Amino acid sequence: MTSTQTSSSSGPVLQCTGLTKTYGDHVAVDGLDLEVHRGEIFGILGANGAGKTTSVECAQGLRRPDRGSIRVLGLDPQADRTRLRGRVGSQLQQANLPDRLKVREAIRLFADSADQARRAMADWELDAIAGTPFAGLSGGQRQRLFLALALLNDPEIVFLDELTQGLDPSARSEVWALIEQVRDRGTTVVLVTHFMNEAEALCDRVAVMRHGRLIDLDTPAGLIDRHGDGVRMRFRPVAVDMGWLRQVPGVRSALVDRGEIEVSGRPPMIAHVGAELVARNQVPDDIRVWQPSLEDALVSLLAA
Amino acid sequence: MTTALASRTVAPHEAADTPRRSPWPQIARLYLTELRLFAREPQSLVFVFGFPIITVLVLGGVFGTATDDSGFEFVNPQHFYTAAYYGVVLCAIATIMLPVHLAGYRERGVLRRFDTSGFPRWAVPASLMASGATFAVLGFAALTTTAALAFGLPAVESPVRMAAGLVLGTLAFVSLGVAIGSIMPTARAAQGLGLMMFFPMFLLAGGGPPPEALSGTMRSIADWLPLTHVIRATQEPWLGLGDGSDHLAIVTGVLVVSTAFWLWRTAHISRAV
């Protein structure tokens, strides 16, 4: 993951204020407040039914919020659809193409010009499958085509909803690389996913939703730090008495487990314990360190 | 995959000042795309081209050329059916081709994709109407050529009224097809309803048995079918059986109601659903 490329001076690219959407008695999105800044990959995470897709569908003007406001590039996605055309790219869940539409025809249909279509075909390496009908594409080829379509008109912000669902790990990592390239050329990416490793690998900031509400928003590292169960170190004892470990800054516990010492605590503990081991000339040769992943942190957060 | 994307060259504030772009080039591309897609659908080709041509040849062969049959209003039965089958081409477009296509788009999320790609919401129905009308013209041409070679074409008694019947009938039925497609949840449902509508309409409205062979009840039902009026609006001025004005008025009503309906649906129904 590269560092956040937020430009505070340009204002939020996407701003939701008190966004609420209900379907009958079911509240799909409940007072959502968030801002997405220019140039970042912003993840929206949550279990199925958390309100992620409804939120981005409101942002794309596909659904009208019941309450609250939503601004994309400072415009209302419902009222200013025409002005937003070409400035917003989308890859929606369950939005396919006609089975008999060929790849080159799809690109030409959505591109502004023949030249733009040619460039997209080359950029996204679609020439080899130009004459293949949509129904004949593999899952990875379809997602590549969808990404090409979403980014055809050089949008300022692109919404990618469950883009890598159904892809094998190899195809998924290829798509991740493409998403990073998209951000690197200055496009803001809003990535809706329920793959936590995807959010951790790609996102500069992540919003976590549950039951339509925003329950936390931070960088992946911040979320891990706040909701992860801390770090753990394990090694075989190199001295009879290692009780001093409990006094090291950041250490929460130091226990003997299956003949090994397990030290738990906050991340800075790793440096302190390491330094103390060196200072005492008690350096074990089998130190292993575990850090919680975003998935560990969010499982803990969502279960709370 | 070694894709490397070009850097953005449009500064954010420059893009923000971009004026509204005309949707017409996009809509023209959509129309051409729809033509290609329809041309690749065997079902559309069979019902719009194959069925009317084969059936008119069979019926023309069965009923011959005698002009003394009151069942055919004392005109050559081959000419009677030729004039009627322009309506059958339109019926296939309105009940099968357009509804199945549009319902398939809804079912597969294609409409959502168009919506988020900046196409105006009326663009898909409008391009389907235009491509449906284009296929109608091609179907008319195929039917005319076949009938001319097989039976010879009758003289047109009232060309202006006949042209009005064909044009309004085409517009009314492509609009009706889009209206039906706008309420069908899936392509399979649209196909089922379409077939259920197509065959009774075709048989009762003038494409099947001679009108005089129908019972009174059947003829009463036929009076309520839009296809009856589309056929008569063309057939009467062509063969000199009447001026077709009443039928033309009903066809115009079908056009107005159908168009108002799909415009309303397009404006009020969320594409996200």
Describe this structure in words.
The complex is a heterodimer of chains A (304) and B (273). Chain A has ten helices and 13 strands. Chain A has a six-stranded mixed sheet, sandwiched between helices. A four-stranded antiparallel sheet of chain A has the order 11-12-10-13. Chain A has a three-stranded antiparallel sheet with strand order 2-1-4, with helices on one face. By secondary structure, chain A is of the alpha/beta class. In chain A, helix 3 (103-110) crosses helix 4 (114-123) and helix 8 crosses helix 10. In chain B, helix 3 packs antiparallel against helix 4 (77-108) and helix 4 runs antiparallel to helix 8 (187-207).
Oligomer: heterodimer
- Mean pLDDT figure of chain A: 88
Task: State the distance separating the first and last CA atoms of chain A.
Answer: 28 Å
C-alpha geometry of chain B: elongated
Strand order across the largest sheet of chain A:
5-6-7-3-8-9
Low-confidence parts of chain A: 1-9
Largest interface, and how many residues on either side?
A-B, 51 and 40 residues
Shape of chain A: elongated
Question: How many helix segments of chain A?
Answer: 10
Secondary structure class of chain B reads mainly alpha
Q: Which residues of chain B form runs of ≥5 with pLDDT under 50?
A: 1-17
The helix count of chain B comes to 11
Structural class by SSE content of chain A:
alpha/beta
Helix content of chain A: 25-40%
The main β sheet of chain A shows up as: 6 strands, mixed
| Helix-strand string of chain B | HHHHHHHHHHH
> What fraction of residues of chain A sit in β-strands?
25-35%
Write the H/E string of chain A, N to C.
EEEHEHEHHHEHEHEEHEEEHEH
Amount of beta strand of chain B: under 5%
What is the first-to-last residue Cα distance of chain B? 34 Å
How many DSSP-defined strands of chain B?
0
Core attributes:
heterodimer; A: 304 residues; alpha/beta; 6-stranded mixed β-sheet; 4-stranded antiparallel β-sheet; 10 helices; disordered N terminus; B: 273 residues; 73% helix; elongated
